[in-house]
Structures are given as structure tokens and as C-alpha cells.
Specification:
Ribosomal Protein S5, domain 2; Alpha-Beta Plaits; 2 domains; eight-stranded mixed β-sheet; about 35% helix; nucleotide-binding; Mev_decarb
């Protein structure tokens, strides 16, 4: 029996669209920052008396696509380890699920780590990243702490994440504005599929996203918050633009999302370095230095309740509890 903890990550350069849906291979590289505030704890035990995998998330049986993806990861673990037993999986999410807060990233990273260790495997971080990717693409990045790059690759073994800077020794954090933590009307998977198939903006998105990779890595290594934030904000807005071009068109933005995005631009005009990014959901993350947290939250409190603003710092990679 093994318990692992994995933290969520926020994509500074987004993963949006699969060129291979079975292997979960993305069209472009992505870069993320692992966060300390949101995480998943998962315990796995392989039990001979079980007639099927038993997977509970927050004490509720996992169903639907989540169950299918979890079984895919467990089957890969059984294949690699040679064991035959079914798994008892108990997972606790310290992050709202399916709300655009990367709950699947922490969930499948924790499952890959706990499951492989429980099966007697001693996988490298690269191997864990490949395994976690089969459950959720963004989970490949949550194996690592700090700043992480997911290489798109061309097959299962070449598509994996890699650390850029695991120990973040400079002043950067995110203020997460929890606009709405309810389940999204359009899942990330469904949204990606619709955009890839129908949005005329998608090819331009892929080209611009890949072009962002080296400038973003340079900004990280130079500890340049302004360049990092500018690239991340532009990248996020271009990703969301693809949803307006889909057929039928859709958006993850809510009125409060737009108000916060506008407020961040206005705060920046005051000379305060702060930048927005939004994943596939309505919740906004504001990239800034911790010295500006109070000023920014005071400004945002006119739009959203103060208790819906959470400060996140760079977080660690996989831990075994």
C-alpha cells in the first residue's frame, strides 16, 4: 500500500488540443508552474480478493470517463509490473474537480506515483510523467515541482515533462480568483476536440504557442516577471480565442471572469506588475510578485469576494506520504 501526493499546476503556456487522442499527444509543447495550494492524496493497494478495481474519489465511486482513464493507468502499471491483482484506490482532492483548476493533473499524477510504487515499480520521474500522461495530459507536468516543460513528442516515449527550475528562488506567486467552482458545462476534453475539428483559429494557435516556448524559458531562467507574465497572458487569450471560432462556438468565460481580466489590465496601468491567465474554466489566475498581493486583492475585492481569492506559491513535485 502506497500513498502519494501530487500538486496541481497552472499552464503558463497552454496545452490545448491532441494530435493523438489515444496516447494523449499534444500539438505543441507547454510550460507550467506547479502550485502549493491545491493537491490530491491517493492511496493504492493491489488486493487479490477484489474482483474489479475499486476506485473512490472523496469517498464516492469514480464513474464515466474518469473511471476509464484511471483504469487505463492501472492497466499500464499491471502490464509493466506483471502483477494481476485489482487495485483499491482511495483519492482525496484538495481542489474542486472539473472546475478548470487542474484537478485531473494532480489526480492522475498521484495515481501514477502511488500505483506504480504499490506494484513494486521504481520509475524515474520521466517514466512517471509518461505514465501519468495516459490519464491526463497535464498530469505529466505535476510529477515535477516548480517550472516544468512538457515536450509534445511524436510517440508515447518522447512525450513527457521535464523540469526547467524545480527550486523557485525568486518572487513569483499566483492569486487564484475562484469565480465558479462548479462542474464546467464543456469539459476540457470536449472543448479541445471541438476546437481541433472546427475552429479556423486552431492552426494559428498551435504555431504561436510553439513559438512562445523559448521566450518563456528565457524569461523563467532570467527571473523576468514582466516578460513571463506578458507571454503567459497573450498565450491564454489566444487559446480562448479558439473557442469562439468553434462550431458551435462556446466560451469558458463568465461575466466576472471578464471583469477580473479588465481589472488586472487597469491595475497594470498603475505601474503594478500583474498578469492574467485562464485555463479551460472561468477562474482567473493573476501572476504577480508577493509584495503586490494586498494591493491587487484590494482592487479585485470590488468585483469578487475576498474569500474567493487564494494566494498560491510555487509547489513541489511528487511526495510519498
Amino acid at each position: 500500500m502506497t500513498t502519494a501526493r501530487a500538486h496541481t499546476n497552472i499552464a503558463l503556456l497552454k496545452y490545448w488540443g491532441k494530435k493523438n487522442t489515444e496516447l494523449i499527444l499534444p500539438y505543441n509543447d507547454s510550460i507550467s508552474l506547479t502550485l502549493d495550494h491545491f493537491y490530491t492524496d491517493t492511496t493504492v493497494d493491489f488486493v487479490s480478493s477484489l474482483t474489479d478495481d475499486e476506485i473512490l474519489v472523496d469517498d464516492q465511486p469514480l464513474t464515466g470517463s474518469g473511471l476509464k482513464r484511471a483504469k487505463r493507468v492501472l492497466n499500464l502499471i499491471r502490464e509493466q509490473s506483471g502483477i494481476q491483482e485489482n487495485a483499491s484506490v482511495h483519492s482525496t482532492n484538495h481542489v474542486p474537480t472539473t472546475a478548470g483548476l487542474a484537478s485531473s493533473a494532480s489526480a492522475f499524477a498521484a495515481l501514477a506515483a502511488a500505483g506504480s510504487k504499490a506494484a513494486g515499480l521504481d520509475l524515474s520521474d520521466k517514466e512517471l510523467s509518461i505514465l501519468a500522461r495516459h490519464g491526463s495530459g497535464s498530469a505529466s507536468r505535476s510529477i515535477f515541482g516548480g517550472f516544468v516543460q512538457w515536450h509534445a513528442g511524436h510517440d508515447s516515449q518522447s512525450s513527457h515533462a521535464q523540469s526547467i527550475q524545480s527550486a523557485v528562488d525568486w518572487d513569483i506567486n499566483l492569486i487564484t480568483a475562484l469565480v465558479d467552482t462548479k462542474k464546467k458545462k464543456v469539459s476540457s476534453t470536449m472543448g479541445m476536440q471541438a476546437v481541433v475539428k472546427t475552429s479556423p483559429f486552431f492552426p494559428a494557435w498551435v504555431k504561436s504557442a510553439q513559438a512562445d516556448v523559448e521566450p518563456m524559458k528565457t524569461a523563467i531562467l532570467n527571473k523576468n516577471l514582466a516578460n513571463l507574465g506578458t507571454i503567459a497572458e497573450n498565450n491564454a487569450m489566444r487559446m480562448h480565442a479558439t473557442t469562439f471560432g468553434a462550431v458551435p462556438n462556446f466560451t469558458y468565460f463568465q461575466p466576472q471572469t471578464l471583469a477580473i481580466l479588465d481589472a488586472v489590465r487597469n491595475i497594470r496601468k498603475l505601474g503594478v506588475e500583474c498578469y492574467s491567465t485562464v485555463d479551460a474554466g472561468p477562474n482567473v489566475k493573476i501572476i504577480c510578485a508577493s509584495s503586490n498581493n494586498e494591493l491587487i486583492m484590494d482592487k479585485l475585492a470590488t468585483i469578487i469576494n475576498r474569500n474567493q481569492l487564494l494566494v498560491c506559491k510555487p509547489g513541489p513535485g511528487i511526495k510519498y506520504l
